[in-house]
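so the lab meeting is tmrw and i was supposed to have these ready like two days ago... anyway. pasting both below. for each one the top line is the aa sequence and the line under it is the structure tokens. i havent really looked at them closely yet so no promises
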Amino acid sequence: MSDERFTSLPSPARTLRQLSCCAVLGLAASAQAADSPKPGSVFQDCKSACPQMVVLPAGSFLMGTPEDELGREGDEGPQHTVTFAKPFAISRYHVTAGELDAYIRESGVKIADGDTRPGRFCAASKPTYKQGPRQPAVCVSWFDVQDYAKWLSKKTGHNYRMVSEAQREYAARAGSAGPFPFPFDNNDPSKYSIAQHANTYGPTDGYSYTAPVGSYPANAFGVHDMHGNVYEWVADCWNDGYQGAPADGSAWTTGDCSVRVMRGNDWGEAPVFSRSGNRNNRAPDVRGDFLGFRVVREL
């Protein structure tokens, strides 16, 4: 007479198959975890033409600025929580002139001239001031940056795109909550000088125009030059506040899309415009010697 207590027990062969399956799944999960770059790690998907990328952790941060922050503008609020469900990688530095030159050579693209102001003319992605290969790429429009990201994706087989405004502020804050993730010079906020950490208005920081990327210390996320040197295009349409802004870190693709957001400040503006939460905008076809870009890559 059979005993039903034993009929549901797996056969030895079935047990071995189950164990084998679990082992394979476990090894696959371990391999995937091992392949996932750790926050802070730096990689480059190709030599010379590809920017160095640094991995940022998943997590949440408070985007925007408190009402009592010195220099705050009305478009910097209300503060709101943004959560990144997955890590992502961002350019360790501004995309450099050398990297943009490699793109131009390999793709055959022509960058149009721009900015006809005296002394500020942009000729085919080149500014009037002397520029080396390690200085930030400038004189590119929002559309040029979109094209560069598409080219880089095709070249590497990975998904590169423009940085969202939330990603840029997350990278700039690097876990900090104040106007900067570093102290004021000589720990004296009354003078509002950040020359030891950023290239902004005046030669005190050592540069009258752009500085070579990485000339100043990285922040806690391992990212350089987030608070000066050149403004950076980001993907978002302009909105004059954060009511209704995405909470997942994605680009805000509604609003006034006739202008696009730029972040970070440049070599010719006062330090107060370098604050982590400061915002600005330009028409997407603008090309200026003060305006460059970064990219992000999905992991």
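ok protien two:
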Amino acid sequence: MDVQDEDQAGRRSRFEFPHRARGPLRIILSRLTLAFGFIVLGTVVVFLGRSGYRDSTGHPLGLLTSFYYSAVTLTTIGYGDVVPASDTARIVNTLVITPLRLGFLLVLVGTTISALTERTRAEWREQTWRNKVRQHTVMVGYGTKGRAAVATLRTRGTLPREIVVVDVSAAAVGEANRHGLVGIVGDGTRSDVLERAELGKAGHVLIATASDDTAVLAALTARRMNATAVITASVARAENVVLLREGGADNVITSSETAGHLLGVASLSPAVGTVLEELLSAGLGLEVAERSPKPEEVGQAPRQISEPVLAVVRDGRPLRYSDPRIGAVRADDRLVIAREAPGSHRRAADQDGKN
């Protein structure tokens, strides 16, 4: 990619906030309806006070003439063939018809005003978001793996405003917006795009790009911009795990090999495959979680704790539950446990009711 291509790619990156999309036809029809409503309101006002108006033909004002006067007065300055003659009619024109005329004109030029203010509004929203965001999660790539990762985060309690999606596809970012997420259309390997995602203030970076080489470059860029964030990446081929770890990734998931292992286990033992699927899928019944030990659990061995302990994280290093170095659980340890997913009983009951 030459310098010109890079500049064009940088300009193409843009913020996308969650919003409810309205089609252009719907917007035009709503504004035309509002404008016509102003004319109808003006017609009613003139007709109710018709005795104070003078028609150049000498005929008394009827509903049609009132409608005509309201239409030409709101859309132009009038033609003088129907004029307010009494003081009351002139006061009504000043206090009611004139504001209606101004409102009518504002509705007609509303599209232009909206176009002029849209950029300012978008910049204000972006700046407000930048000032507030801290320790958020940057999701680079919003394909099948990225969507599943975000779904798991949200199931575990992460709020939508704490997740930022970066993807080159406007359609993918649009889908993220529909789920309440902030999105950036752009290349997640470029530092200027990741700067817009405030990666320097992020607590976690998830990389789920379509190709391994893109994942490696994204991890290198992310680590250079943030030395403390936890970077987790997904790759298709196991030989690229070393490259990602050398590039700064803390955790690397090999999707192809992992899927193959699960297939093999499920074929040999379907029950084990079902349990593993529940552990790896959000909200299916079982989940693997990390938590601090409860006060009454401090000093106990992992086997004595009521919830199954899979590992103990001590000084940042995970130790398997059977590792003799664990000894007794400490207050500053972290326990990796298997437990029932929140709400799994209710979902199971609902499923049984459907069956």
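from a quick look at the 2nd one: Residues 24-48 form the longest helix (25 residues). The first strand starts at residue 14 and ends at 16. will dig more after coffe
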